[in-house]
Amino acid sequence: MKKWDQVRAGKRRQHNSSSRGHDHPLANRRSQIRNPKIWLFAVFCSFLRAGSFASPAVPKFPFDLASGEIYVALMQKGNASTFDSPRVRFVMRMPVPQFFSNFVGRKLFRFLLTIQGLGAFALITLAVLIKKIGAARPVVRPLIFREISRSGLQLLPMFLFLAAALGLLVIGQTVSWATRFGATQYLGTVMVIVVVRELGPLISALLVLARIGTANVVELGTARATGEVEALEALGIDPVHFLVVPRVLGMAIGIFSLTVYLIIGALASGYLWAFMQDVPLRPGDYFSQLASALTGLDFILLALKTVLFGFIIAIVTCYHGLAQPLRLEEVSYATVRAVAQSVIACVMIDALFIVIYLAT
Amino acid sequence: MSTAPETSTRCALEMRGVSVSSMRDVDSIAVEDVNWTVSPGQWWVISGLQGTGKSDFMMMTGGLMAPVAGTYCFLGEEMPIFEDHRLPDRLKLGFVFENGQLFHQLTISENISLPLRYHRNLSQAEAEPEVKKLLELTELAPWADSTPGAIARNWQRRAGLARALMLRPEVLLLDNPLAGLDLRHRAWWLNLLEQLSRGHEWTNGRPMTLIVTTNDLRLWRGGARQFAVLKDKRFIVLGGWEQVEKASDEMVRELRTTATTED
Which residues of A touch B25 (CB under 8 A)? Predict the structure, then answer.
């Protein structure tokens, strides 16, 4: 303690003596501030470094190994994480990049690592799902039903409300535009293109992500932080089997079912709104318009897409909650990251399906 | 290195040149070069000041982490065991966490029954008789339907013990079981562990091998317990209580004479 006091006293003494030498301790700095060249240079530098200031390396960011974090996967047998090799650690511990190219490179590197980690986690989950399909049925089956109810049945009222709204906004806009050209015979086609192929699945996925995906990250992140995952392992229970598999199945089935209800509801409410806007359209005509616009491929792709959405959202949210040793204060960061990555993943899958539609 | 006599041809635990990394930072080594043999039925007390890696060592011993170096065999099987076909051997090892580490979504009785239901494919009703016995043993019956968040920490830790006992393990690891307990709870734990060590009716009279960690050696004085300390990343086997009393090491003296933390 004494030693420290002496050091501090010494520093103060130095500071006092230096300030006595000038009129004001900031005098030199002030002359710098008046110099326009220095200003220009400062603006240039701040522009160059803008990206690195905005980089998450500055606040606490568990992916960043510069903060001394480790990144161990939840199981040692199938190491889901790719953040724990010496080479990766070396790269991630390098000083904050000075230039945009470095910054972009680092971002890209991080992105690829995340993809790799998510891919590994998805493969592990699939392997466990297939391998332990009938194992511990009395324990896992109620969990699966609970998850289906949570990310399916319990959201149904909200989805029915949403279906009515979706029908209104699509039909409302289309009718106001189509009546000008007398093109009301395309109402059914528009509904199929907009609701069945695009908006229905995507809205369902994003809503389930917002309501259940976030809850997943928080639940699993807390379980990780409070040591429940270690407790599972100590009891010989596979955490992926117990925690991830029910969520993946529940979310895939939930999103698929909700999308079907959302689409049926939106198509029905669409007719209702068209009827209320005095469009001369009989229910039979509307139905035959829908039927002619739909193809067999629509049904297959709809099922595939929604199940894939559910799978991806569950994987991303579980990965962020579970695949790294979190501390309690890191759970909120993990949630933010999981939501962002889930949205990006869903949009990318959607883009992939558009390509399939265009190709066929 | 072990001073323990070999009472059986098969060791309960055997470590040769084992190094343990820290749970939070895989780069740092918490304990180095452990050579340790535990025979069935022994009761070991591992002591050390806080932050000397007792919990990391227990995590490794419990098979939750692989050793960084060396070999660690549990009942002749190399640890850690993650493969499904070796799981029955793994389940002979019970682990009681310092704070119980219960599953907060489940009730106390569901927590206790979970390992049995998962590994034996039983419904909650089928597991009920076993759960009832353990609830009575740990005096937890009044809170059977509460969630862990609703009961006091002392009782949560008992639930953690009950959950670990559910599968009738042969070796039980307890991470700092007496830390922060009041006298009544402490006496209860010591008494039950004593019974388990001698052979409790829950395990059909089979003596259980116990390994506990502690901050305070005085609490574990007497009996036929074996002692070891963790100091400066080394695992030092002391032997019986007489050796602890004779030990000239300053830290051992501190651990056996003064209360350290929480007590």
Answer: 68, 70
What whole-number distance in Å separates Cα of residue B132 and Cα of residue B140? 9
Give the residue numbers in A contacting B (CB under 8 Å), as ranges: 68, 70, 72, 75-77, 84, 136-139, 219, 222-223, 226-228, 230-237, 242, 325
Assess B78–A contact: CB distance below 8 Å, yes or no.
no
H or E element, residue A50: helix A36-54
3 state SS of A47: helix
Min Cα–Cα distance to chain A from B61, Å: 11
Interval A58-105: pLDDT, tens: 333 333 333 333 333 333 333 445 455 666 667 666 666 566 777 788
All domains in chain B, ordered by first residue: 1-92+176-263 (3.40.50.300), 101-168 (no CATH)
Q: Which residues of B41-70 are buried (b: 16+ CB within 10 A; e: fewer)?
A: bbbbbbbbeeebbbbbbbbbbbbbbebeee
Token pair of A37 as six digits: 């060249």
Query: Which amino acid, B183?
Result: L
pLDDT in tens, chain B (263 residues): 444 444 445 788 888 888 888 877 777 888 888 888 888 888 899 988 887 888 888 888 888 888 888 888 888 888 888 777 888 888 889 999 988 889 988 999 999 999 999 998 888 888 889 899 999 988 988 998 999 999 988 899 999 999 999 999 999 999 988 888 888 999 999 999 998 888 888 888 888 999 999 888 888 887 788 888 888 888 888 888 877 777 777 777 777 775 444 44
Taking an 8 Å cut-off on Cβ atoms, the answer to whether A234 and B82 are in contact is no
Q: Is B119 on the interface with A (CB under 8 A)?
A: yes
Residue ranges of the domains in chain A? 26-128, 133-359
Chain B CA closest to residue A137: B121
Whether B225 and chain A come into contact, CB under 8 Å, resolves to no
Rg (CA), chain B: 18
DSSP letter string, B171-216: EEEESSTTTT--HHHHHHHHHHHHHHHH--GGGTTPPPEEEEEES-
Rounded distance, CA B182 to CA B179, Å? 9
Q: How far apart are CA B153 and CA B155, in angstroms?
A: 5
Interchain contact B59–A (C-beta under 8 A): yes
B231: CB partners within 8 A, 6+ apart = B48, B49, B52, B249, B251
Contact B65/A at CB under 8 A: yes
Question: How far apart are the CA of A137 and the nearest CA of chain B, in angstroms?
Answer: 6
Tokens of A249: 């199945």
Q: What is the ipTM of this complex?
A: 0.86
- Contact at CB, A139 and B114, closer than 8 angstroms: yes
| Closest Cβ–Cβ partner in A72, A75, A226 for B26 | A72
